[in-house]
């Protein structure tokens, strides 16, 4: 069975990628003159205006990119810990293969490089990064973030012996969950940065997108469970363990109530200018995202799990 470090790896990589995707999308939606210190258009008559705008946005994008990057780096550390020895991680890059773990390592590396450039730009000055390079980094960040979000579910769905995981719903569920937890991480990072009131309108829009993601996540989770209950005996047994078996208290409390219910109510009825409420919602989203993966991994059963896990890690 997959270990605790693997679960943390899947969770942190997904949440970090979701936060970075959200930050990049919001930066794309921000007019260039407002996020760059280079005067353009009518702002050329007021040279200080772009500098002021860029500085005003730094408390938002700096923490947003920083939190996402930190989560992905922690996920990579968990991957290294799960492999047992640092040299095994190095072997993944020096001796590449088409195994899921090797492809995932390269995706994480690409995401870290692109995110580091964007984080540095907002931490040390937007004007210090050439415009074309910052643009390439954002495009690469979006592509690699989407790939990492999908990868975390595809990794489990590739283990065909575990019929509960071998479902088309699982990769989509994990991707949507990564987006939801990532948006929560983004909002929490901005709140900790001390500037939630300044960006209340933007954070409110983030909450609305997150509400849609939570509803989609609930529907996908239901589809995964219904498909398992309608499947063969092994998949049905896994779903029953989750719904009414030993893992049911953890699943219903931490995944359904805390991870989905509480944040959804907060997104629909809450205010974006309350840092404490935002941090509470972030904590609930992150807790729910972790326990979703923990429960899904724990209910996986198969007659020859070890062989399939070894194959996924490129050791079979």
Terminal CA distance: 15 Å
* Radius of gyration over all CA atoms, rounded: 20 Å
Estimate what percentage of residues fall within beta strands.
under 5%
Biggest beta-sheet profile: none
Number of strands: 0
The general outline is globular
Order of helices and strands: HHHHHHHHHHHH
Judged by helices, strands and strand pairing, the structural class is mainly alpha
Overall mean pLDDT = 81
Number of helices: 12
- Helix percent reads over 70%
- Uncertain runs are 37-53, 302-313
How would the blueprint of this fold be written?
Elements: H1 4-29, H2 32-35, H3 48-83, H4 86-94, H5 100-124, H6 131-157, H7 169-192, H8 200-229, H9 233-243, H10 248-269, H11 275-298, H12 305-312
Précis, in short:
By secondary structure, the chain is an all-alpha fold. Helix content is 78%, strand content 0%. The radius of gyration is 20 Å and the shape is globular.
What does this protein look like?
The chain is globular. The chain is 78% helix and 0% strand. It has twelve helices and no strands. It has helices at residues 4-29, 32-35, 48-83, 86-94, 100-124, 131-157, 169-192, 200-229, 233-243, 248-269, 275-298, 305-312. The chain is mostly helical. Helix 1 (4-29) crosses helix 11, helix 3 (48-83) runs antiparallel to helix 5 (100-124) and helix 8 (200-229) crosses helix 9 (233-243). The model is unreliable at 37-53 and 302-313 (pLDDT under 50).
